[in-house]
Amino acid sequence: MAQRILLVDDEPDFAQGLARLVSAGFPDVEVELAHSGAEALPLIAAGGVGLMFTDLRMPGLDGQELLRQALEADPNLTVIMLTGHGSVETAVAALKAGAYDFLTKPVERAELFRAVAKGLERDRLLGENRSLRELARRSELERTLVGQGPAMRRLKESMAAVAASDYTVLVRGESGTGKELVAASIHRLSSRASRPFITVNCPAIPEHLLESELFGHVKGAFTGADKSRRGLFVAASEGSILLDEIGDIPMPVQTKLLRVLQEHEVRPVGSSDNVKVNVRILATTNQDLEGRIASGLFRQDLFYRLNVLTISPPPLRERKEDIPLLAAHFLAQTCAEMRLPPKVLGPETVACLTERPWPGNVRELQNFIRRLAVFCPNPQVDMAHLRQAEGGLPGYAHGEPQAEPLAPYKEAKAHVLDSFTKRYVEQVLEMSGGNISEAARISGIERVSLQKILRRMGANAKDGE
Question: Residue 367 is part of a domain; what is its CATH number?
């Protein structure tokens, strides 16, 4: 698209003469005229103007005020002021207010062309930077959110749009759909990316501690408060805070959180003073907040404050076309984590995984792929490994229920758990060369717990540091 220049001057003859000069010197540039500040602002708000020349002294909306409002509408706009010889001090003030350059009237042709060339070059560079940032944002989304189906494309587009604003975001969805990942990605794509990102697992913090954890407390506020402590909202200053599973926040804390959203300030426990905070709030929930409102468990006014922008990661059943890509991604990731040779999924295995319901969504799929990686010693994961990872549950083969009768639930469950534990421990011991400490590190099982399992199995292993 051609670059656009807007010339703003209340003297029509001067403006038209200036336009002819610019058009002659820069034939590939679009030149528009406005004869007042009020006439110029809608053109700027519509977008596409890269460079604006404006007279400093105009009736009504003068150049100084036009500069302020224009940069408010488009912070990337390049503005060059036009002023008489007697107003250089005012022009310098305009530079401090955000103008890129200024020219004195009458305008010399060479000086005009120099200013236009520099202004257009700045506009071009800013445009390239915007394009690069957009590419970086999209690349970030592709790296963190695996999937190319329609549902995921819509999600990524929504996230890019939401990240460009500074409003509160509520991420709603089923367990295992990646709500925390979505929230973290929104922060990384936002203008606050270089600032703190703090996650609060709301259900994990006891009610009597949650208020102090979020808002801080002063010395002596309660028993054990031997010194003042800043809360997580203050720690996240200029950045973002993620309130994970916000539906579980107790009612007294909901009331204080509402104040943060309304007034952008917190009051530490035991203090009579408020502390201003500049924090973007991101929240996640898998609960029916409307139902909790009806039950009196969640404040309606808080819900409306939170529900400014809503993102809903789709469940896996609505994006089955992404399962092969996700499975391959998780398999490569698991092999790298466990320092195993790369593995691939066989065609039948991929087809079976794609047809499964996955009620636990992406998290369930990821955990199952981890089991597959453990149970498969070969470069290719086939159906035999898939059945082994399932634990050999009677009456289940190739992902489909069979006609043979099932064992009682407790018996079948115990069989699956014992079988899985035995094969898993054997595999991890083989990988660690029988070293218990190394096996504990690979498996993520506490060393003491692993030793108990080995004693129960009667397996032999050696200690290691």
Answer: 1.10.8.60
Residues 343 and 278 in one domain: no
For residue 457, what are the contacts with CB-CB under 8 A and spacing of at least 6?
A: 421, 422, 425
Specify whether the CB–CB gap between 232 and 213 falls below 8 A.
Answer: yes
Tens digit of each residue's pLDDT (9 = 90 or more) over 177-192 = 999 999 999 998 888 9
Residue 382 and residue 434 in one domain: no
| C-alpha span between 124 and 441 (Å, rounded) | 53
Domain that holds residue 250: 145-311
Angle at 147 between CA 141 and CA 150, to 5 degrees: 100
Q: Which CATH number covers residue 174?
A: 3.40.50.300
Count structural domains, the chain.
Answer: 4
Beta-sheet pairing, 344-345 with 380-381:
parallel
| Residues 312, 179 contacting (CB under 8 angstroms) | no
**Structure confidence by residue, pLDDT tens digits, 112-154:** 999 999 999 998 888 877 766 665 555 666 667 888 889 998 9
Domain boundary among 255, 281, 311: 311
Please name every residue paired with 192 in a beta bridge, in sequence order, or none if there are none. none
CA distances from 66 to 33, 214, 315, 389, 426 (A): 15, 42, 49, 68, 75
End-to-end CA distance of the chain: 65
Residue 300 vs residues 52, 304, 305, 311: alpha-carbon distances, Å:
47, 6, 9, 19
Contacts from 299-302 at CB under 8 Å and sequence distance 24+? 299/251, 299/254, 299/255, 299/258, 301/258, 302/254, 302/257, 302/258, 302/261
Structure tokens of 148?
């190319």
Q: Residue 463 domain-assigned?
A: yes
